[in-house]
Amino acid sequence: MLTMLAIGIFLAIRGFGSDNAAPPSKYERILQNVAEMIRQGHFSPKDVNDDFSRKVYAKYFEGLDPEKNIFLKEDLKSLRRHETRVDDELKGAPVEFFQEVSKIFDKRVEETKKVYEDILSKPFDFAAKETYVVDPKKTDFAATEAERREAIRKKLKYMALERFVDLQEGRDKNKDSVRKTDAQLEAEARDRVRKTMNRIYERNRKTFDEDKRFAVYVNTITNLMDPYTEFFPPVEKRYFEEQLSGTFSGIGASLQYDEGNIKIATLLTGSPAWKSKQVEVGDIITKVGQGKDSAQDIAGYEVEDAVKLIRGKKGTDVTLTLKKKDGSLQRVTLTRDVIQQDEVFARSAVVEQNGSRIGYIYLPEFYISFDDPNGHNSATDVAMEIKKLKEAKVDGIVMDLRSNGGGSLPAVVDMVGLFIEDGPVVQVRGRDGRPMVMRDKDPGVLYDGPLTVMVNEFSASASEIFAAAIQDYGRGVIIGSSSTYGKGTVQRAIGLDPDNFMSNNSELGSLKLTLQKFYRINGGATQLKGVTPDVVIPDQYELLKYRERDNENALPWDEISKANYRSWNGGYDLQTIKNLSNSRVTASPVFQQIKKNTELLAQRNDKEYTLNIEQYRQEQKEIRALAKATDSLIKANQELVINYLPADQERIGQDKNKQERYNAWLKDRSRDIYLDQALRVIDDIRNQQALAKSKKEQQPVKTF
Length: 704
Prior knowledge:
It comes from Flaviaesturariibacter amylovorans. Keywords: Hydrolase, Protease, Serine protease. This is Carboxy terminal-processing peptidase. Residues 237-311 form the PDZ domain. A hairpin with a 2-residue loop joins strand 4 (253-258) and strand 5. The chain has a seven-stranded mixed sheet, with helices on both faces. Strands 4, 5, 6, 7, 8 and 9 form a six-stranded antiparallel sheet that branches. Strands 2, 14, 15, 18 and 19 form a five-stranded antiparallel sheet that branches. The chain has 704 residues and is an alpha+beta fold. It contains 21 helices and 22 strands. The protein starts with a helix and ends in a 6-residue tail after the last helix. Helix 7 packs across helix 8 (182-207).
């Protein structure tokens, strides 16, 4: 399919710029290629016409100014001639709209910088009763400069109010310190806000260049098709693949932001930075150079901006200018090497509970190495963890996919195959309407014991495929919030260079294009609805609008024919499991408190905040009381006895930083009330299986 798509796009794009027209610029080529790819390949492309153009026009201003406190209404009116031209630009007309918006944006940014500096030069009156509305759906661009100034004033006042109350509380707790007056603390709060704003403006000045504004423009267009069709400039494409694979080429140092500086936070043992003996924790990176090229000053950068400069292709050089602890400057050239992020890979532990040994596998994402066939693969890694747990003779396994945003489709198919005999895992349908069934072809089952799968509202895509397949087969019990995220679409990154669409190093960048939709083997889409767990447990984020269904551009839910598959006989009754779990949750003061908190916090989530200090203090007091009540109930619960396996202890070895991170992870899980419920479900499954086996053995043998 992709080959035919590439040929079609190449032929279509080759026609652009004919009739002796001027050669298209980089931006025009990107926009035309993106438009043609969407037209020919998107699962459900929208009509690109004047109505679509009007939506892009309005959304682009919001994309550059989401809080609507930079542009004025007159700016939108002044460029109204472009309102119905976006579709023309997509079809080959000169790219002008985003560049004209960019000029106005620069002018308005300088104006608002002076406004915030002036506002922060004077004290705020926190006794006044007024509110600050954050929700962009409830606000509009200001009609006048005075209106805009008022919007900025309220934002800055809220930021200062938060810091002022924190400073007051800190002063009141620390009786031994020099007692500052409220006026001094208010001035300090404004100064902190000023530093934050300076940092934001400085970062935008240095990093939010024309290319990035163009990327916002292109993604305004693509996101109107669906939330996941996305344009990646070359460096962003590399960063995306690094996140998905868990492996990248860099220097092996973690960074942190500290008062406008990028500092070295930790060094990975054996990495280029560690081997150099010249890079130390606490060093400040002031400049980054690519090889012998001129270095780039990174003052004001966020950590993510600096990371993108420091990472690169294996074997290439990066030169850091470091400010050492004694104030001296040192230039260090390091050769990038492959770095593996252990935290993104599967890991396991064993929980001792009620005489049982239950295995626990945590998988943060379905990763796969794009460039290395022998690199990490989530299905292979999970298989290794299962083998280790079987050797430890566990009585059941909990698979934790909470907040797992998905990843590799082949990996999830292989992973389901570890728990079932051969059969369909997921159905995939493209715009041609013909479903394709992706199957586990291995008749073997690596693990056939009791299984629970933990999910939440942030479990998406591949996580939902795994949970849905396990649920449809009846292979295990799904436990979590009322539904998973609801991302049931398939994307593929395609290079934008017309002569090499399949290249991972496209000079124009890449388009992550929605080509297909996922369907469960029972026929229903995971899109929009997600997966409803068998056992639902109250969750603090339950009522917040984070799921796919809360995105106005999300593709709809539908269903296709059911695939042919055989259910798993687990030896237990699912309804009995549900009843037992519901009884525990209903009787649990912790979960009832969480449910109460969730409902109360959802009522407050109207994104309208008080600017009156007494009302603010009262609201914070109520929120803290809710959090404290829950926290005290959780702490009253007995800690889980959870330990990692001997093989992992050997792997961690003498790496102190890795040991600390792993121990902190185990400590966190020992207080995990949701994991505790998943373990109890394993016990319920085992008890039912034992009861069924006992009844079968007690049946009289009949002879004839």
